[in-house]
Amino acid sequence: MKRIIVIVAGALALAACGRVAPLKPAAGQSLPVKPAMAQKTPDADELLTAPTQARPERIDELMKRSQPRSADRFDLPPPTGEAPTVPETEEPVEDATRISTPQ
Fold first, then answer.
1. What predicted TM-score, i.e. pTM, was given to this entire model?
2. 79-to-20, 64, 83, 87 alpha-carbon distances in Å
């Protein structure tokens, strides 16, 4: 029983030793100099706050709607060496940038 009391008292003492106070620079030290384009020198809290680029928002929905992949003629064959099967398209799309030959 004494052993449990000693362990609990030690855990409470260890938990209580952390002080909560505003951060200050060490004795004889100062905060970093003001950045070139900043209007004022940031304090310790502003320096510890991560910018939005460091923690971007997560986007769970990557696709709005499901679409089949189009055929890619530059797709590499599988490692087995077999030729890939290319799905047939309904109708070829007219390329408006192509110069037509006279008939």
1. 0.32
2. 60, 32, 10, 20
- DSSP state at residue 67: -
**Distance between CA 15 and CA 12 in Å, rounded?**
5
d(CA 2, CA 46): 47
pLDDT tens readout for residues 29-57: 887 888 889 898 888 888 888 887 887 77
Query: Within 10 A of 9 (CB to CB), how many other CB atoms are there?
Result: 10
Non-local CB neighbours of 77 within 8 Å, separated by 6+ positions: 83, 84
Q: Which residue has the tokens 């590499």?
A: 76
Q: Are 31 and 47 in contact (CB under 8 A)?
A: yes
Give the separation between CA 33 and CA 81, rounded to whole angstroms. 61
Instruction: Report the alpha-carbon distance of residue 33 to residue 17 in Å, rounded.
Output: 32
Measured at the alpha carbon of residue 72, what is the angle toward residues 70 and 76, in degrees to the nearest 5?
140
